[in-house]
Design a protein that fits this description.
Order of helices and strands: EEEHEEEEHHHEHEHEEH
Number of helices: 7
Strand content: 15-25%
Structural class: alpha/beta
Bound molecules: adenosine-5'-diphosphate, magnesium ion
Distance between the termini: 31 Å
Radius of gyration: 18 Å
Helix content: 25-40%
Largest sheet: 6 strands, mixed
CATH topology of the largest domain: Rossmann fold
Shape: globular
Number of strands: 11
Number of domains: 2
CATH class of the largest domain: Alpha Beta
């Protein structure tokens, strides 16, 4: 991202500036977390990276190509994930591929082998309401991953889960990322989650979102429950917290 600034037009008022002068780069295979106060433009940033909206100024490059419209290189799991309640898990999982133009039968065949890894084996024909929250999020992630795009955008994927499920999902995602070498941008409100999962944490200021800090997380991999106990882990959490703390005008 180069000099990325975004404003929303408003009636009878100056435009609302949401992102300002963002510059940062993510390497292929890197896990990057983005953390910032509510309203700092994190979801807006993802909409821009996915090409669903055009930045007011600045450029986003994915694999060296400027994003100018709906991006074919990016798979996006939005904050409010939509599993369709009337579709089975298998049909929900196949939806991303179907939208890309894959025939229904082929799309189902492509997603089916992923079910065991996503802990969804045997639930292919279940409906979303029959699954736990963690399983639903894994199904949504499966749909995103199945699209085989080079970059995954995950907007607070575990935000609505209880804390135990959330920790389990973090451990699981760390393993999956390591196995598949995905390039991930993850938006989260959770400092612990950001430090645990990421290679680098980008901290945004409150609106308009600017880059307050980039914290490099050099904790060893694989990350496990032991990772949470390392003194270095606490030090990094503190570093992110103080970067966030200096950004908010509200106590
Ligand atoms: P975050 O995800 O960091 O909580 P968002 O990117 O969702 O923040 O929103 C940033 C700001 O932009 C908020 O103040 C929000 O009200 C505003 N906003 C988001 N989308 C739109 C839109 N489509 N039109 C106008 N304002 C918007
Ligand atoms: Mg958001």
């Amino acid at each position: 991202m180069r000099g990325l600034t975004h404003e929303f037009a408003r009636a009878d008022q100056a435009p609302l500036r949401v992102l300002e002068g963002l510059d940062f780069a993510v390497r292929p295979g890197e896990f990057t977390a983005i953390i910032g106060p509510s309203g700092s433009g994190k979801s807006t940033l993802f909409n821009l990276v996915a090409g669903l909206d055009r930045p007011t100024s600045g450029v986003i490059y994915v694999d060296g190509r400027a994003v100018t419209g709906h991006s074919e290189q990016v798979a996006y799991m939005p904050q409010k994930d939509l599993l369709f309640p009337w579709r089975t898990i298998e049909d929900n999982a196949a939806l991303g591929l179907e939208v890309q133009g894959t025939a229904k039968r082929a799309a189902r065949a492509a997603v089916r082998p992923l079910f065991p890894e996503f802990g969804l084996d045997g639930f292919e024909r279940s409906y979303p309401a029959q699954l736990s929250g963690g399983m639903r999020q894994r199904a949504a992630l499966l749909r995103t991953v199945a699209m085989q795009r080079s970059v995954l955008l995950l907007d607070e994927p575990f935000g609505a889960l209880d804390s135990l499920t959330r920790t389990q999902m973090q451990l699981w995602l760390a393993q999956m990322w390591q196995r598949h070498s995905w390039t991930v941008l993850l938006v989260t409100h959770d400092i612990r989650e950001a430090v645990f999962l990421a290679d680098s944490v980008h901290v945004l200021t409150s609106r308009p979102g600017r880059l307050a800090a980039r914290v490099v997380v050099d904790l060893p991999r694989p990350r496990t429950t032991q990772t949470f106990l390392q003194p270095e882990f606490a030090r990094l959490e503190q570093q992110v917290l103080s970067a966030l703390g200096t950004t908010s005008d509200v106590p």
